[in-house]
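Rather than argue in generalities, we have chosen a single entry, letters for residues, whole numbers for local backbone shapes, without further comment.
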Amino acid sequence: MDGIFYVFNPNLKRLQPMFQLKKTNIVWWPVTINEPVDGGKVTEFPCQIQFELLDQKEFDELSLKGDIVLLSSVVKGWQEILGANKKDLPFTKKNIDAFLQVPYVRASLFNAYLGAVSGAPVKN
């Protein structure tokens, strides 16, 4: 079917997907970066960020080192991010380091990561 293991549930009389515990879970997740502008408003910039969803022990250990260390460990890629030249910004260590120096970018990424690890669907 789609890489998901299904079993027949006789109570529901249909196939049902089975949860599979994975060693590594990497997902593309929609993120909106909220850039502050005059008047107490924000400009929203939607993008896609690839996150590695850590287990609780890894998350706790990295959290103690600060949000920049945590986010540089869990962000594995991006789409729809432009550089100063208005072209796609390649995902590199130098670029993610610069990206994470912007406080509202970090806040947007951190909030999105928490949504991803909680399994909360993104509302449109």
About this structure: Residues 23-118 form one domain. The mean pLDDT is 87. The helical segments are 56-63, 67-74, 93-99, 103-118. The chain is about 30% helix and 30% strand.
